[in-house]
C-alpha cells in the first residue's frame, strides 16, 4: 500500500487593526474545513509564541497600519520575532505563507507582510508562496490579489498533504 503524510493542523495567525485581516483569516478557516484540514485561527498576540517552533504549517495574515506599523494585536509578536538572539534555525521545521493587507496609496505599502516574510526566511522557515499583497486601491479591493493567491495556497498545501481517498 501507499503511505501519505497525515495532514497537520494548519495554523492561521492574524494581525488586524480594523477587522479585514481577521475576516480573511476566518475565510481561510472555512476553506480549510471544506478541504477536511484541521485548522485553528487566532490573533498573533493571543498565540503562545514559544510554540511556534513546533508548528509545521502556518499562514500569517497581516495588515499594515499607521506609517508602516503592525496592528495592535500583533505588537508583542513583532517584538519577539525580531529579537536579535533568535537562532537562524529557529523555524526550520515550518512551512509558511504570508498574506498582506494594505493600501498602495501609502508609502510603506504592505510593509508588515513584506518584512515578516523576510524575517521568517531568515529564521529558517520555508515559504510556500511569494507574499500576497492585498491592495485597497484595486478596483476589486484586496480580493483581486487574495482570491488567486488562496487558490495557489490550497494547491500547494494539498500537494504536500494529499487528503485520504
Ligand atoms: C490609519 C491607517 C493607516 C494605514 N497605513 C498603511 C500603511 O502604512 N501601509 C499600507 O500598506 N496600508 C496601510 N493602511 C491600509 C490598511 O492596511 C488596509 O486597509 C487593510 O485592509 C486593513 O486591514 P485591517 O482591517 O485588518 O486592519 C492603513 C489604513 C489606515 C486606516
Q: Between the first and last Cα atoms, what is the distance in angstroms?
A: 13 Å
Helical coverage, percent range:
25-40%
CATH top level assignment: Alpha Beta
**Gyration radius, in Å:** 15 Å
CATH superfamily: Flavodoxin domain
N to C succession of SSEs: EHEEHEHEEH
* Shape category: globular
Helix count? 4
Task: Please state roughly what percent of the residues sit in beta strands, choosing from under 5%, 5-15%, 15-25%, 25-35%, 35-45% or over 45%.
Answer: 15-25%
CATH architecture: 3-Layer(aba) Sandwich
The total tally of domains equals 1
- At the fold tier of CATH, the topology name is Rossmann fold
Mean pLDDT: 95
Main β-sheet: number of strands, strand sense, barrel status? 6 strands, parallel
Unreliable residue runs: none
Number of strands: 6
The ligands found in this model are: flavin mononucleotide
Secondary-structure content class:
alpha/beta
Amino acid at each position: 500500500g501507499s503511505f501519505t503524510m497525515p495532514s497537520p493542523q494548519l495554523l492561521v495567525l492574524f494581525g488586524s487593526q480594523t477587522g479585514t485581516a481577521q475576516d480573511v483569516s476566518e475565510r481561510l478557516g472555512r476553506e480549510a474545513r471544506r478541504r477536511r484540514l484541521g485548522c485553528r485561527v487566532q490573533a498573533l498576540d493571543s498565540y503562545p509564541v514559544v510554540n511556534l517552533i513546533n508548528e509545521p504549517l502556518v499562514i500569517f495574515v497581516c495588515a499594515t497600519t499607521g506609517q508602516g506599523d503592525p496592528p495592535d494585536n500583533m505588537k508583542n509578536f513583532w517584538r519577539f520575532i525580531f529579537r536579535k538572539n533568535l537562532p537562524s534555525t529557529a523555524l526550520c521545521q515550518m512551512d509558511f505563507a504570508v498574506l498582506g493587507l494594505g493600501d498602495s496609496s501609502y508609502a510603506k505599502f504592505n510593509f508588515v507582510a513584506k518584512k515578516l516574510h523576510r524575517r521568517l526566511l531568515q529564521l529558517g522557515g520555508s515559504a510556500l508562496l511569494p507574499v500576497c499583497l492585498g491592495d485597497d486601491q484595486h478596483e476589486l479591493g484586496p480580493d483581486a490579489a487574495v482570491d488567486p493567491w488562496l487558490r495557489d495556497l490550497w494547491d500547494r498545501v494539498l500537494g504536500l498533504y494529499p487528503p485520504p481517498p
